[in-house]
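Design review, sub-item: ligand-bound model
Attendees: FS, YL, KQ
YL presented the inputs for the adenosine-5'-triphosphate complex:
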Amino acid sequence: MITNINNTVYNFRKITFCGQKEKAAGTRTSCNAPYRSPLGVYADTFVRQNAQRENAQQTDKTPKNTGKKQAATAHPFRKISYNKAKNMLSYEKIAAVQEFLRQNKDFMNASNPADKNPVIKDMFEIEGKKYDARFSGGGGTKNTFQIEQGGKKYTLALPTYVDNPQIAAEKWLDVLEFEPKNTKLLRDKGLKTNDIFDIVPVKVNGAEFPAVLMKPYSEHSFKVGDRKNYSFANLLNFEEVDILNDRMFLDLFKDIPKEIAKLTALGIEPHYDCVNLCREKKTGSKDCTGAFHLYLNDLDKNFAKKKLTEKEAEQCIKNYTYLAISALPETVDRNLRQWCDYFVFIEANEGIRKKIETQAMEEYQKIKGR
Ligand SMILES: Nc1ncnc2c1ncn2[C@@H]1O[C@H](COP(=O)(O)OP(=O)(O)OP(=O)(O)O)[C@@H](O)[C@H]1O
Ligand SMILES: [Mg+2]
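KQ shared the predicted structure:
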């Protein structure tokens, strides 16, 4: 009997994936996963050393009630490393989690924000404490749920139940390996991404499972618009959409060229899935207020730093610009979007595209010291 994913997925080089949009169209595509070393090959000593290092880090990072304002990234849960999480995964555990999700699929309504979805009683157990959860959204890899602890809301992600356990495991290992570090990298560079992205062990359906902890979009100090989830499409209101024009658009997007330049200088090429928008909540004094920023998420293995040639850097700037502009209508309420003429031509609007590209290129040259 297969008892460990080690035996089943380590040489699984070619995986299939099915994103939300592809799923709707009923199509499947495939991609090459990077080679992954077998799970659980680490010697006992390595695992022990790793655990010691983790515990040491844990003690340091436990949020202390010092009376000072706590960092946005702080949370009260015990986090673990990728290596420990990898050793925790098994075929049976993935299957048990998927079975639980399947049994509760009627509670998982993707068109509602988490607060409007029904409660799944005692879904998670974390360090002996049971937590009710509400579904927040599902993609081709993750199903996300909202829980509450100490008066604060948190998002926990689990795999999807539509893939067979081997494929779900392979995708989940990508999430565990790449997303925490990629999210931290961007956050450290001052770009907007989730405040929290840690691996946290939870119990679901009796199985101890390495889930992913995030901050719900709704709890950030800025408003997040996720182009893959219509319940997070509220970055412009009716009055703003009504008067939207190029001048106002460029004013709202005034910080974005710098962010595009920063990402390009880091050598990070964009992917549709990763490039979203967010908006500052505090408003200024001018007619259009609350600047937009890129919001970068879903940062798995497709998201990698590389050395870009000048030509690639130029293309990278163009691609980010296109994705940022095209994200705007997708982060506005569906009814408003259909009603707004400005959005119909936004992707064909050469004026705004060229301005943003030129500004981003100037910023990029500054970073490169030219
Ligand atoms: N921090 C969060 N707060 C609330 N909802 C979230 C959060 N992170 C993700 N979600 C929702 O969970 C769902 C899955 O998230 P995400 O798009 O990151 O996963 P995915 O399965 O990797 O997607 P894809 O298949 O497109 O790569 C989406 O509907 C997303 O809006
Ligand atoms: Mg993904």
